[in-house]
């Protein structure tokens, strides 16, 4: 929708998954922080780029959101996560979800 409306530079964050187009200003790329699953609110590292998407699968931000049907309840987080970058948000999500423990 933003591209159709003429946007040439934007960053959209949907629940921690990010779609980037262009840069925040002419010239420099976007810089985003990657969550540290052991220190909430503190980035473990940063990623810099343009025209890409980043998706993360894990419990760093949403904590107990994994359901174990055998236990009829939420699984305990183990602090592991996987972040993947790709050219589209759907590709980044598919990669992160398939690799995450």
Automatic annotation (TrEMBL):
Keywords for the protein's UniProt record, in alphabetical order: Transferase
Keyword Transmembrane helix: no
GO MF annotation: an example: transferase activity
Polar residues bias locations: 1-11
Region (Disordered) location: 1-30
InterPro entries from the UniProt entry: ApbE, ApbE-like_sf
One of the Pfam families matching this protein, by short name: ApbE
Full protein name: FAD:protein FMN transferase
Species per Swiss-Prot/TrEMBL record: Arthrobacter wenxiniae
